[in-house]
Amino acid sequence: MDPTDLRAEIPACQSCAYLNTGASGPCPEPVVEAVADAQRRQEFDVCSVGHYTAAADLKEKARGAIAPHVGATPADIALVDATGDGISRIANALEWEPGDRVVRTDLEHPSGVLPWRRLAETGIEVTTVSCPEGRLPMDAYREAVEGARLVCLSSESWLHGTRLPVAEAVEIAHDAGALVVVDAVQTVGQHPIDVEAWGADVVCASGHKWLLGPWGAGFVYVAPDSLSALRPRHIGYRSVTDPTGEGLEYHPDASRLEVSTNAVAPYAGLIEAIDLLESVGMDTVEARIERLTDRLKAGLGDRCLSPDVYESGLVAFEVDDTGSFLERTEAAEIAVRDLPSGVIRASVHAFNTAEEIDALLELC
């Protein structure tokens, strides 16, 4: 399969120039069919395969698809609803003490802000590292993480499209004795990824953006050596080894972060989505995104706020009037979005075309 074949599988591409994958990706038709088929099996085949058996089998298949895609092993993957769900579960799985400190960057999505803001109400300190132009200032970061309990940072800025030096940031934090949680939702699906090479304690992501999967299929990687630090308060029968026993023994792997009966059909879609992208090849996906974003940036010139040299498919740029620009893009059937700062962001994936880039540039 090549990017043209991938595009042909995405019905949304027949309706608009979809340049908003950084918010939510358009599912290929086989992904939606996989979700529907899984839901039918879950509900209609209960006489031959019980609900719980079918769900457990599908979840294991999902772990088996996610883990190699991100450079992990299946036991290190917990299945959650979305990236923010994963970050929140981690925030509620640590034994916090007054005076503990969390460090985050000012590049974080609200999913990487609000859990720590809530903890601040209980006496936890939160330090925010300012990242001019989407760059992590390493000297200021190194100073900030001294004495911190946990660091939360994104692998890529949803605001700028910049890529952060995750492995270096993790090493600095670990040297200071801090755990590290990485929000990787803007990385999975547009770049090859190796969570073990990053060295982070936890990596949270979701399938509904660049992976082109359905909503409701998020996942969390937990490094085996970091499991003992996680004793979830958000807990249910799927969190423990013996739900009906007298004690409380968490699962000895990442599944301790899972809680209860949830929708499993979205994971059938995620399995299919990963298979489709891998059939194209992640190196091919990344190379095409680079070519298309180079074309967009060249056309934008000084209006482009993202790095001139390729880092990701996220391209932020200025327009004279955000509201009127969005009205024009809607009329032209081009999907982009505005950011809280008032600038426009286009998200370029491998299924996009040079013609779509040019159509956007004509409106700028």
Automatic annotation (TrEMBL):
Gene3D superfamilies attached to this UniProt entry: Aspartate Aminotransferase, domain 1, Type I PLP-dependent aspartate aminotransferase-like (Major domain)
TM regions (residue ranges): none
Recorded GO MF terms: transaminase activity
Keyword Transferase: yes
Segments forming domain Aminotransferase class V: 18-360
InterPro entries for the chain: Aminotrans_V_dom, PyrdxlP-dep_Trfase, PyrdxlP-dep_Trfase_major, PyrdxlP-dep_Trfase_small
Keywords: Aminotransferase, Pyridoxal phosphate, Transferase
SUPFAM superfamilies: PLP-dependent transferases
Keyword Signal: no
Name the record gives this protein: Aminotransferase class V-fold PLP-dependent enzyme
Record organism: Natronomonas aquatica
